[in-house]
Amino acid sequence: MKVESEIGKTNSVNINAIDMIERPLLVMRQKVLFPNIVTSMHIVHKEELAAVKMMIQKGMSVIVSSPRSTFLNNPKPDDVYEFGVLASIIRYMPIPNNVTIVLLEGIKRVRITQWVQSKPYAVVQAELLHESSELDNTTIIEAQMRMIVNVLEKLAQLNHAISYEVLTMAKEIVSPSHLTDFVASVVDLKLQERQDLLPVIKPTIRLQRLSSILTQELDIQELQGRIQNQVRREIDETQREFFLREQLRVIQQELGEKDSYLAEVHELGTQLESLALPPSVHLKVKKELSRLESTPHTAPEVGIIRNYLNLILDLPWSEASQEQLDIHHAKTILNKNHYGLKRVKERILEYIAVRSRTKGQTSLRTPILCFVGPPGTGKTTLGRSIAEALGRKYANLSLGGMRDEAQIRGHRRTYIGAMPGRIIQTIKRVGTINPLIVLDEIDKIGTEYRGDPAAALLEVLDPEQNNVFVDNYLDLPYNLSQVLFIATANTLDTIPPSLIDRMEVIEFPGYIDSEKFAIATNFLIPRHLDEHALTLEELAFDDEAVRHAIRTYTYESGVRDLDRQLGKICRKVVRQFMEGINSPCLIKIESLAKYLGVPKYVNQFLNAVDEIGVATGLAWTAAGGDIVFIEVGVYEGQGKLTLTGKLGKVMQESAQAALSYTRTNADRYGIDPTCFTHIDVHIHVPEGAVSKDGPSAGVTVATALISAFSKRPVKRTIATTGEITLQGNILPVGGLRVKVMAAHRAGLETVVIPKRNEKDLVEIPQKVRDKLDFILADNMDVVLKTMLV
């Protein structure tokens, strides 16, 4: 290998005859120098300038490379790219601020192999990279060169930075190597893309890579051009519209006409001035109107301000429905649409009586009611009837699944697409300040990171605050005190206590069979006959058939399923008539199976015989009352207790308390006290997919345990409920009414309840009390005497 050091020598050596060369190194920032290309660089360091002057005096060349980072001041060997260019110094020229411009011309590609010295200036040893003069396929190379020139011409059309002279020079170049280096230096490529072309020695490969880079750059330039043209068109259109509108305004002024935009603003202001607005609202309206007049009609804020003023214009500020305070009329309406529900009807009639007595004074607080009960008991539909009885507008606001607080309070106007909350929207829709609004499914409100809607309802449902309710969008106090809010829920468990405290809770118990029969004959059947265009001569229901359908085809606290079954019968009868069978139809017990299929609930709630270790309990659910079976199994083991059936923590502890009571009083019930150490106990509650919790099954669990250990069967027609203590005392429970209703539906004969629940028996319908025997128990002895055979 031939090495030539030119430090201190002339530049007369033929570089094609050597392989290695030693030269001073100049680091060119933000540029990449190619062979046969002339470019300039700035030198600020005195040491580099001294080297340049010495090289010029001796007529020698230098090595030029680029730093890996633009911001390096004193680059080290690892900070400079390995591949660079051997360049000759044409001249240098000082400029202000101690900066010298050096004009360089690239000669040949090099690869830096060794860093010879760093001070006073950098000197490196580099390998000269000789390009092959033989070309593989001149036809392909010629095609590639033409394509590069064509792309360069297109780029010149899109980017005026490429001049006509540059295009002419590119077309005259015949060397593929020279063409790639020339184009790479004149096109606005990334620094790394240019640097990546330096190590490529073979011209054909360099042509391919440059072609790919230029094609990608052309796509980017075309896309950028399309974006710029689109923006320019939009700007031109906006300017054109502004110019035309200004011309129109001037023409209208010359003709003595008013500006249509200002006329609309004036008309809006006139409409707002005619409203009886509170002083604070009136002040806000004047301020917003002033903003609207001073804002150019093309500004985006115009739409926001107008929507806000239109909301104020559309909201009722003093418009109220004339209330019907005739108590007899209200009573007729409520009884016409709903059967039973005595307590809630009495509450509404009391409110009407007081309103009538006080001559409708607005100082009287409007009640905020919460109807709680199983599905299908008429909570939502009763709200519509109350609105009709009071002569108020009715609106239903479903809260089920609501998770965003802004749906109650609204969004602030600073947000794009902001809207008022659903409370204000509902008031706007009904158009009066005293509607009846049903807040449906208030127990199914969700909570997430966007806020708690239930917390936002606190202000809405608080009589002390809702007269100055502030919606975030409206940003003004609005009086909700005259609105009659009625919330509906299936359970109170999921409603925050602070929200319950603001409402008057009225429970909707489930219907007994006699009540369902009255509802079916007086309400459901006539409605279905009317909906299906049937007459009583064409379709009639036998009373016993209706009762049988209630007992064997439905099992619910409400009447929704019964309504579906009656509708199913009507549809099948209509189909018969349309198929040509026109004989009148009388639905009897025998014909129910023809229309409704096999009965679904036939004595499935009671065991066939009295069993050992199986006791019947009563449970409360969100859908009403239900009966449960507590099963106990005992077998050889180590005294372990197993609980299954998806039981909650409270119910598990209740079962443990029942087992402790059984072990403590084993002698009293004929149980061997020593058996508990070598017998395992398994307590199971069927329907394992349903969660169960609460302490009221404690008495039932203790009964099943004592039955299992004493081998005495439990009477299957008796159910019990109550919480047990370790001393065997029976504590009261809640939801007694729905539990007793469940026992009645299941066909039980006797119910054992805590003695301290005796006061709750008055809430149970007399017809149910007449059909059930109630045993009042204050300790387990009374329970076991009744329950065990």
Strand pairing plus helix content: what structural class?
alpha/beta
General shape: elongated
Whole-number tally of structural domains = 6
CATH topology term of the largest domain: Rossmann fold
Strand % is 15-25%
* Distance between the first and last residues' Cα: 115 Å
Strand order of the largest sheet: 19-20-18-17-21-24-25
Spans of 5+ residues with little confidence (pLDDT < 50)?
8-13
Q: Report helical residue fraction.
A: 40-55%
What is the CATH superfamily label of the largest domain? P-loop containing nucleotide triphosphate hydrolases
According to DSSP, the number of beta strands is 25
The CATH class of the largest domain is: Alpha Beta
SS summary, helix count = 25
The CATH architecture classification of the largest domain is 3-Layer(aba) Sandwich
Instruction: Summarize model confidence as the mean pLDDT.
Output: 84
Largest beta-sheet details: 7 strands, mixed
Radius of gyration: 46 Å
List keywords for this structure.
about 20% strand, 6 domains, seven-stranded mixed sheet, Archaeosine Trna-guanine Transglycosylase, Chain: A, domain 4, 25 strands, elongated, about 800 residues, alpha/beta, Methane Monooxygenase Hydroxylase, Chain G, domain 1
How is this structure best described in words?
This protein has 789 residues and is α/β, with parallel strands linked by helices. It has six domains: 3-128, Archaeosine Trna-guanine Transglycosylase, Chain: A, domain 4; 137-257, Methane Monooxygenase Hydroxylase, Chain G, domain 1 (Up-down Bundle), CATH 1.20.58; 260-314, no CATH class; 327-507, Rossmann fold, CATH 3.40.50; 513-596, Orthogonal Bundle (Helicase, Ruva Protein, domain 3), CATH 1.10.8.60; 614-787, Ribosomal Protein S5, domain 2 (2-Layer Sandwich), CATH 3.30.230.10. 42% of the residues lie in helices and 18% in strands. Strands 19-20-18-17-21-24-25 form a seven-stranded mixed β-sheet. Helix 2 (138-158) packs parallel to helix 4 and helix 21 (649-664) crosses helix 22 (698-710). The longest helix is centred in the first third of the chain and has 52 residues, at 203-254. The radius of gyration is 46 Å and the shape is elongated. The N and C termini lie far apart (115 Å). Mean pLDDT is 84; it is low at 8-13.
